[in-house]
Amino acid sequence: MATCHMFHSLLIPILVLLIHFSAQHANCGNIVKYLPGFEGPLPFVLETGYIGVGENDDVQTFYYFIESENNPREDPLMLWLTGGPGCSAFSGLVFEIGPLSFQFHDYNGGLPTLVYKPYSWTKVSSILFVDMPVNTGFSYATTESASHRTDWSLVHQTHQFLRKWLIEHPEFLTNELYVGGDSYSGIPIPVITHEISQANEEGIQPWINLQGYLLGNAVTTRTEKNYEIPFSHGMALISDELYHSLQKNCRGEFTNVDIANVLCTKDLKSYDDTVSGLYTGHTLDAKCEFGSPKPFDLPWKRSLIDNYSSESNNNRLTLPPITCRVVFHELSIRDVSLMLLFYIFCYMIS
Asked: What pLDDT is attached to residue 314?
């Protein structure tokens, strides 16, 4: 597992360049043609920028937009939110569904090598990766009150962002739209979709060609055993024998179990033991520890004038022999974004 200290040197060239191209805030996007660590020009259209949302545009929302590599004028448009809440959209781009990834082997601590992924979702759709909620990734608040985050503000601001972005990019107004995301985003995405649909019915412009939503590893289902256990069986994570025993002894109810039902309780214990070694975000990945001993104690609020320090920025942390992207997804992109914000600000105005 790589530490945040390692990622400080690994991600600075890429993230600084992305922000440099998007230095003009307030509804401004710029095309990024080259990235450090990637040989030659990017084989797809990458735009980064900011859209102001909230009261008086007091939330500046950063996005990465990648056009479909097939037919951007006709292929669907997807708005993608990463989980957390608070994981940068950059993690979704390079570790999940985007066309770029890091080359992990033979990394020597210098400039990381970016590689092109031929099976990206951008082969068939254009994707808006959005840093939401506020203070995620490179999105930020310009006022104290705008820094306050709730699920409802996330819903309203994402909806507002989408309509504003479409006004800035009218060539995508008629494209079919899907709203997608993973993990914690399983909570706001259905509500965002509902709000878009309601606004369409009320005649709010621009009209959005909404088609549906999709969820990956949604926190709304993977933590509820009535859904989790059938899913685990369907994914062959548990045996037929254990699943049938659970169905028989628990009578299909795995959440509110009578403690007097010894056989059901025993089967549930067997289930928990069986899946305890799995990384729930991706069952084919290794389950790894966080780079920081207290990853969720990190501060969410950030400032251009406040100093920021973290236990995760610790030279004594060592790298284990396997690659773990759980740290990238759940901690490091966000953590590095927090640590680098002041550095990037100085870079842009110098």
From this structure: 35
Determine the Cα–Cα distance for residues 192 and 80; give it in Å rounded to an integer.
12
Instruction: List b or e across 1-12, with b for residues whose CB sees 16 or more CB atoms inside 10 angstroms.
Output: bbbbbbbbebbb
Q: Cα–Cα distances in Å, from 147 out to 16, 65, 150, 334? A: 23, 24, 10, 16
Grouped pLDDT means (10 residues each) for the chain, 350 residues: 35 47 53 90 94 91 96 96 87 90 76 89 96 91 88 92 96 96 89 95 95 85 78 91 95 86 94 87 71 49 33 36 44 34 30
Nearest to 115 by CA among 219, 42, 190, 199: 42
Looking at domain 4-217+284-349, its CATH superfamily turns out to be Alpha/Beta hydrolase fold, catalytic domain (3.40.50.1820)
- Comparing CA positions, the residue from 151, 122, 163 lying closest to residue 27 is 163
**Structure token pair of residue 180:** 């997608």
Read off the amino acid at residue 331: L
What does the pLDDT read at residue 27?
53
Nearest C-alpha neighbor of 53 from the set 172, 175, 213, 192: 192
**Residue extents of the structural domains in the chain:** 4-217+284-349, 225-275
pTM: 0.70
Question: Are the beta carbons of 325 and 95 closer than 8 angstroms?
Answer: yes
Find, among 5, 178, 156, 7, the residue nearest to 76 by Cα.
178
Collapse the DSSP code of 107 into the 3-class scheme (helix H, G, I; strand E, B; otherwise coil) and give the result.
Answer: coil
Q: In sequence order, what are the beta bridge partners of 179?
A: 79, 213
Q: How far apart are the first and last CA of the chain?
A: 34
